[in-house]
Specification:
By secondary structure, the protein is an alpha/beta fold. Helices cover about 35% and strands about 20% of the residues.
Amino acid sequence: MTEFDPQLGSLPVQDHDHDVLLIAGSRPEVARLAPIATAFVDADRIRALTVATGPEAMAVHEAFEALGVPAEITKMPGMLSGPHPAAVAAMLMSSLDDLMVDLDPSAVMVYGGGMTAAVAAQVAFWRQIPVVHLQSGNATDDLLCPFPQEANRRIIGQLASLFLITTGGAVGATVGPNAISVGDTMAANPQPADLRISRLVRRVQGGLPRLVLVGLDRPDSLGVLAGLPDLLDHEPDIEVVLYGRLAAHGVAYPLLQNKRATVVRDLPLADLVRLIAASCVLVSDDPDLVTDAPGLGTPAVLVDGPHVQEPGDSIRSILSPAVMT
């Protein structure tokens, strides 16, 4: 027996005839695609390769890993930057085209209607690679709301070969005959490590209470923190989860004495994703997180802006402490 021969009694190495690229450009896209990637890995019949790209490619890569996707199956074509979205989209188109030519996948899967999904679908269509569109049925009858996701979603709908609908069909939904209803893939992400968070999420999913998630890091957000006890007093059906650097500030002490408040210094990404999705609103001074929240189905308030309003935008920028009024 030579060193190139398999060891006696060993299982044969699985040969994959098909590769599928799961392309994400934001953390909400990762939250939906990561469970699919891990399911492919567990089944070991089709090789799944996750692609972390977009303006925050490294954050997307870290999100895949935090949600259980093996780091070795994630590709990162390169960092993208530009003065405006058109410049980023142009660089993204070129990098994804090179990647698809190099890997020659059997299919490409995208989620929702973000810029990365739209560009990836167009490049795959040009290369005659089938496109699988996840969450294609979540649509509105207003082309500008949400902006630009609804327009992108309709474009992808014209290019996709298979539609995976995680919710009921909606007005304006663009789907072809090859539509399959599936469960919300985000529910298959790792459960929160903190038992308090896990129990709270289960209670919210059961119908009660309403959850307000507050993430505060900057000292000039103390006005919001100081107003949280009053919010709990006036809204008996609300519970609050506070996290971030200000969770260790003395102003947060009254929340520690309140049974309807949970205070944590840090949240793992898996826990944060679950909490955002379960919340009725996110209040945060982190612009990137506020940008991600609507993709998880949660409206967001950005403390102390500035935020440039776009048509159909669900992000609001309010000065502290006016957030609590």
